[in-house]
Amino acid sequence: MQRKPDLLWILVILFGLGIVTTGYAQGLWSAKADAPVEITQQQQQQPTRR
User: Fold this and answer.
1) pLDDT, tens digit (0-9, with 9 covering 90-100), for 2-49
2) Which residues of 13-28 are buried (b: 16+ CB within 10 A; e: fewer)?
3) What does the alpha-carbon distance between residue 7 and residue 3 come to, in Å, rounded to a whole number?
4) Which superkingdom heads the taxonomic lineage of this protein's source (predicted)?
């Protein structure tokens, strides 16, 4: 009979994966930030008052 992994170890593994994923995403984000960015602005229509 095998022992089930403790909930603590599952949380530690999930937390570690979250840190690795966040670091990877930030690396991609900063690499993409070096590229030229085109900013477009949408105009909002103001409601007419009577």
Assistant:
1) 777 799 999 999 999 999 999 998 888 887 766 665 666 666 777 776
2) eeeeeeeeeeeeeeee
3) 12
4) Bacteria
- In angstroms, how far is the first alpha carbon of the chain from the final one? 78
- Residue 49's CB: how many other CB atoms inside 10 A? 4
Residue labelled with tokens 């937390």: 15
This prediction's pTM: 0.50
The 3-class SS string of 4-35 reads CCCHHHHHHHHHHHHHHHHHHHHHHHHHHHCC
